[in-house]
Amino acid sequence: MLANVVFFNHVGLILCADKVKELISKCLQARDMAYCPYSRFPVGAAILTTDGAVITGCNVENASYGLTVCAERTAIQRAVVEGYRQFTAIAVTCDIKDRFVGPCGACRQVLMEVRHTYLL
């Protein structure tokens, strides 16, 4: 189950095993909700707030590919809308089991900005 989940944790923070399992489980559940009729490439993300809340996101595609929103950005945007501003970890998964697939450039940019602004 863990082979296809990427887990990012801010350096120096230790998370209990139960919280990591919850984050991964919710990440996998979010992937199942993905709307990806064009690529058939479901992605799920789960972000952990400093309050212990887990906020999820999935990719939502559009026929105009530039309007597609990735799972990582969906999770971060949902967290911000729900009032969370400080995060400790994020888990991301797709359905490729034999190799790592990292976040796209746009998601990396958002994660970097969030890291400098909100990530503890």
TrEMBL record:
Source species: Dissostichus eleginoides (Patagonian toothfish)
Pfam short name (any one): dCMP_cyt_deam_1
Domain CMP/dCMP-type deaminase: residue ranges: 18-120
Alphabetical list of SUPFAM superfamilies matching this protein: Cytidine deaminase-like
Cofactor list: Zn(2+)
E.C. number(s) listed in UniProt: 3.5.4.5
UniProt-listed InterPro entries: APOBEC/CMP_deaminase_Zn-bd, CMP_dCMP_dom, Cyt/Deoxycyt_deaminase, Cyt_deam_tetra, Cytidine_deaminase-like
Stated role: This enzyme scavenges exogenous and endogenous cytidine and 2'-deoxycytidine for UMP synthesis.
Catalytic activities: 2'-deoxycytidine + H2O + H(+) = 2'-deoxyuridine + NH4(+); cytidine + H2O + H(+) = uridine + NH4(+)
Annotated binding of substrate, by residue: N59, V60, E61, N62, A63, S64, Y65
Family: Belongs to the cytidine and deoxycytidylate deaminase family.
Residues annotated to bind Zn(2+): C70, C104, C107
Gene3D superfamilies registered for this protein in UniProt: Cytidine Deaminase, domain 2
Protein name: Cytidine deaminase
GO MF: cytidine deaminase activity; identical protein binding; zinc ion binding
Positions of the catalytic residues: E72 (proton donor)
GO BP terms, alphabetized: nucleobase-containing small molecule metabolic process; pyrimidine-containing compound metabolic process
Record key words, sorted: Hydrolase, Metal-binding, Zinc
GO cellular component: cytosol
PROSITE patterns: CYT_DCMP_DEAMINASES_1 (PS00903), CYT_DCMP_DEAMINASES_2 (PS51747)
